[in-house]
Amino acid sequence: MDIQLGAIEARYADMIWEQEPVTSSELVKLTAVEFNWKRTTAHNVLRRLIDKGLFKNENGLVTAVISREEFYSRQSRQYVEDSFAGSLPAFIAAFTQNSKLTQEEAEEIRRMIDEAEEK
Questions:
Q1: pTM of the full predicted structure?
Q2: What single string gives the DSSP state of each residue in 62-113?
Q3: Helix, strand or coil for residue 23?
């Protein structure tokens, strides 16, 4: 599942994830303050996010179908697939080419690798 979001859609999705469960009327108020949107714009962009499978709106209550963590995990996997032929080592090599990992970062990556190997 490849879900593409524009910059504004991504900011709106993040707002929903932070607030959920949230009413659509509350989202109208929040987007008026945050983005200076009118009600119709808030509803139209919400409808696009629902159509993309991220959220659902049941009787005016908006909740996530996919968590923020799951969405960004899928986006990251898709990026590695598209940009590095699916090679995580190639991605890490490119990521660390011009910078050093801190001790804490290296330990966290080792922990993640250990956990992934146990699965």
A1: 0.73
A2: EEESS-HHHHHHHHHHHHHHHHHTT-HHHHHHHHHTTSPPPHHHHHHHHHHH
A3: strand
Strand, coil or helix: what is 56? strand
Q: What is the DSSP letter of 38?
A: -
Bridge partners of residue 111, in order along the sequence: none
The DSSP symbol for 55 reads E
Residue pLDDT, tens place only, 84-94 = 888 888 888 88
40's tokens: 């119709």
CB 61 within 8 A of CB 76: no
Q: Length of the chain in residues, anyone?
A: 119
